[in-house]
Specification:
The protein has 332 residues and is an all-alpha fold. It has one domain (45-321): ABC transporter involved in vitamin B12 uptake, BtuC. 69% of the residues lie in helices and 1% in strands. A two-stranded antiparallel ribbon has the order 1-2. A hairpin with a 2-residue loop joins strand 1 and strand 2 (177-178). Helix 2 packs parallel to helix 6 and helix 3 packs parallel to helix 5 (132-151). The longest helix is centred in the last third of the chain and has 27 residues, at 305-331.
């Protein structure tokens, strides 16, 4: 009696091949077309100052988006990042203003507080085994309450330029390239490589593809899940430093709506909201697309509500493409 070898299991991680995906190329093409259109229709878009400002505005969205990509790829989501940015920003801004802490200390505190907030989310989700959107929606409100208590019904004014090296002014850029954008690119490149070329990165995709199968295969699911949220918190801390570095008043609305921009960038970048598929490169391009749309609407003096409309359309197209692709994959 002859036996046949079992057919090799179909890969659940099609984006680990180490190459740029079709969706990333499409995004790059769309961004290029938008830049060309804005360059032709306006006299100010293709200028060093405008592009530098665009890169600075994209940096915090993409920074948090790196962590959000990891979280969503492994099957979770974090809608509390905007409130977490508020908490970190007000704490660090007050420390810089009132205690005169140095740049390294400010960054360490920001990263530490962000990591702690991420740890709270990760532990509650992993131990409580409640869907991440429920937990993080709860912590969104808790973090916001904590931040408002620290604000104590006032703005944080008179913040010195301790973190200006990460801001959007002349101190915060070299050759019109914001330092925050460079830091974001370096971190994105490192995470892109890690997720595609290491066993740990493959485990993240495996968790999002089939959590039970990943656990049975020996993946420490709970530990990696908690670490994903802690990583997001660390990047929230860095994004907060970028926000403070921009100068001006730190108002109580800082961070409001950031979670929507971040999730939009991640989804538009091709990460499946169901988990198991996505890339950091796509997220960076998604953030750049969102930033370009916002910048274009402002330069053309169109109603600001059109930014939400255009971003919403891009999200629907990205989700629709993901649904069609998933159905085709299941039928194959």
């Amino acid at each position: 009696m002859t036996t046949t070898a079992p057919a090799p299991a179909r890969s659940t991680m099609p984006l680990l091949s180490g190459r740029v995906t079709g969706q990333e190329l499409v995004l790059l093409g769309v961004i290029t077309l938008l830049w060309l259109a804005l360059g032709v229709s306006t006299d100010t878009f293709i200028q060093a100052g405008t592009l530098s400002n665009l890169a600075y505005n994209v940096a915090p969205i993409a920074l948090v988006g790196i962590g959000m990509t990891v979280v969503i790829v492994c099957g979770g989501i974090d809608v509390s990042v905007g409130s977490a940015v508020t908490v970190v920003t007000v704490i660090v801004a007050k420390l810089v203003r009132d205690q005169g802490v140095s740049l390294p200390v400010a960054v360490v505190v920001a990263v530490g507080v962000g990591a702690l907030l991420g740890l709270v989310n990760g532990v509650l989700i992993s131990v409580g085994r409640v869907h991440a959107i429920i937990i993080t929606f709860g912590t969104l409100n808790v973090f916001r309450f904590v931040a408002l208590r620290i604000f104590d019904s006032e703005q944080v004014a008179g913040v010195p330029g301790t973190l200006a090296v990460l801001g959007g002014g002349q101190t915060g850029e070299t050759l019109h390239v914001p330092h925050a954008f460079v830091v974001m690119l370096l971190l994105a490149g490192a995470m892109w490589w890690y997720m595609r070329n290491t066993a740990g990165g493959r485990h993240l995709y495996a968790m999002g593809g089939d959590r039970l199968a990943a656990r049975l295969a020996g993946v420490k699911v709970q530990r990696r899940e908690v670490l994903a949220y802690v990583l997001t918190g660390v990047l929230v801390g860095l994004a907060s430093c970028v926000v403070i570095g921009g100068g001006g008043l730190i108002g109580q609305n800082v961070g409001v709506g950031l979670e929507l921009q971040v999730i939009a960038a991640v989804v538009i970048g091709g990460t499946s909201i169901m988990g198991g598929r996505g890339t950091v490169l796509g997220t960076v391009l998604g953030a750049l697309l969102v930033g370009t749309v916002a910048s274009g609407v402002t330069i053309l003096h169109w109603p600001s509500q059109l930014t939400s409309l255009f971003v919403g359309v891009f999200i629907l197209v990205a989700v629709g493409t993901d649904v069609v692709r998933e159905r085709s994959r299941r039928r194959a």
